[in-house]
Specification:
about 375 residues, alpha/beta, TIM Barrel, eight-stranded parallel β-barrel, 15 helices
């Protein structure tokens, strides 16, 4: 009997997990998931479970700073997930089977207010450091001014990239153009792979708050219409490039935010192509739904609904608002992760030892 997730994959969708929790990875791999993504919230949650107490304690006893410990714990957790999906990466010759590794979110912290040039330099350094010699690892770079400025150099260096925190066609285009230039410079096009994470449900949260005048038919559809538009742009751009690996859209933020919505609303809407990174709860709801998926990714709401969305939604305001909120959601979890590590250090009685250790210039995080 074909499961719902298997039917989704049969439409042409790659299903990745928005978690690298080992239990969730094992369950979703058994269901058919072929990749995963990480972020500071996921790393913090893993540490809180106690699963990583042994390696965490070892790092803390070495006297590493909280920043360094967070960095190494992320590397360890991502590598474990990569090991699970490595056979997929090998079988597809690098077209699938990835785990995403997020670079330092605090580079974008408004409280630090680092110059764009410094942030760009650090993205390039960190991307090369943690992206090279890691088959099956994607480096997540945010679609900020500094992040976009780093993309060409990273692509030229052969780093596999996942551009995250993307909401609008303008953002997608600027990231794609930078990566394409870098890939042409690098000339290793047989191994070139890029993906662009388009956040969906956050757009619908925005319209519910800022555009209550949308009709019931349009409200809750803006994120879907927007992401499908970007998906078509991406498909059309790469169609004649004759690349061996697919340059894909990741449909991200696919967990519904409104209790009255079906938990598989976004999963169903994007069935048929590219990649979905779904939270564990979304995949569990999908498996329980009994739903058989069919291709929907190239189907839009009625023309009058699309026209209303195009007429009503100010994409510049949407982008500015969601980027401001997104940067906060990007940096706050990293601060919480560092706070948890400091707490663990105190619990082990190692705080004084860390305070006595000289801190090297230019800490990684």
């Amino acid at each position: 009997m074909v499961t719902p997730l298997q039917s989704l994959i049969a439409t042409g969708t790659k299903v990745w997990l928005d978690s690298i929790d080992p239990g969730a990875i094992a369950q979703n791999r058994a269901w058919g998931a072929t990749g995963a993504t990480s972020n500071p919230i996921i790393i913090r949650d893993l540490i809180q479970t106690g699963q990583l107490d042994q390696p965490l304690g070892q790092l803390l006893r070495k006297g590493l700073s909280d920043d360094e410990v967070a960095w190494h714990m992320t590397d360890l957790a991502v590598q474990k997930a990569q090991d699970v999906f490595r056979p997929v990466w090998e079988q597809t010759h690098g077209n699938d089977g990835y785990v995403s590794f997020e670079l330092d979110p605090l580079l974008e912290d408004p409280e630090r207010n680092l110059p764009v040039e410094e942030r760009t330099r650090r993205y390039i350094e960190l991307g090369k450091e943690w992206g090279r010699e890691h088959p099956g690892r994607m480096i997540k770079v945010p679609n900020t001014d500094a992040g976009v400025a780093a993309l060409e150099e990273l692509a030229a260096a052969g780093i596999t990239l996942n551009v995250t925190l993307t909401f609008t066609p303008r953002q997608y285009e600027q990231a794609r153009e930078a990566i394409c230039r870098g890939a042409q410079r690098g000339r290793a096009l047989e191994r070139f792979k890029s993906v662009y994470s388009i956040f969906v449900s956050r757009v619908d949260v925005y319209t519910a708050e800022h555009l209550p005048q949308l009709s019931p038919a349009a409200q809750g559809q803006v994120g879907i219409v927007n992401a499908k538009h970007i998906w078509r742009m991406n498909r059309d751009f790469w169609a004649d490039k004759r690349l061996p690996l697919s340059q894909e859209i990741i449909f991200a933020s696919t967990g519904v935010k409104k209790p009255e919505d079906s938990p598989i609303k976004y999963v169903e809407a994007f069935a048929g192509s590219d990649i979905q990174t779904n939270p564990p709860a979304t995949n569990e709801a999908m498996q329980k739904s009994g739903h058989t998926f069919t291709r929907q990714v190239d189907r839009l709401p009625p023309d009058n609904v699309v026209a209303e969305i195009e007429r009503t939604v100010d994409m510049n305001h949407l982008e500015a608002t969601l980027m401001r909120e997104g940067v906060k959601k990007f940096t706050d979890p990293q601060k919480a992760l560092l706070k948890l590590i400091a707490q663990k250090r105190t619990e082990l009685g190692l705080a004084a030892r860390a305070a006595e250790r000289p801190q090297p210039a230019g800490q990684r995080r």
